[in-house]
Amino acid sequence: MDKFFASNVFSKQRIFMVSGLVGCSLLLTACAGTMRISWPSLSPFNWFGSSLKVSDQGLGEISRQTNMTQSAIEQGLDGKYRLRSGMETKDGKLTSIIQGMEDNQVKLEFYGLDKGKVNRIDILDSNIKTVWGTKIGTPFSDLYDKAYGACQRSDDFSAQPTVICTAPQSQHVSYVFSGTWDGQKEFMPADDILKEWKVSKIIWKAS
């Protein structure tokens, strides 16, 4: 899977088009030209954690009806994250990808066809919960008694062993669990192993 972003295209074939707040002070005099400030992100109510929640419909107000554009996603996020956008090739198809950044770390990833709608959201921000209370770090044992019928082994064991489980409340939401396991990567870890694993990513899909 190759990702292409709009800066540094000659060296890494990656380009990120970063939103207008980058490199600018909150003081209007710090940046030349017109700067667009998201006032909701400056509200004291947003200083004490994220109000965004993952549900069967999507993330906050971002759903399958949201345009796969940086402006539409920024509005849905209330300006909380710095955004950068680019393209990704997957299974021979060209897909748009928009990342939500905070402290130079990727916290959110949005996927969808170019000029289409959002069809997948990857949540890596530990401050974001589902409407059912699940978040990054929630143990497997808090959600499942066994993996059978809900979980499958991830195809990507390159960094750390992972399994993906469908949320009990929604077919549109999945949890990626990571943990320690010394078994062969083609096998599913036993339930007594999985109970110690924790959510490392939350995924929402439109279908």
Automatic annotation (TrEMBL):
It comes from the Bacteria. It holds the Pfam family DUF1131. PROSITE patterns: PROKAR_LIPOPROTEIN. NCBIfam families: PRK10718.1. This is RpoE-regulated lipoprotein. It comes from Xenorhabdus mauleonii.
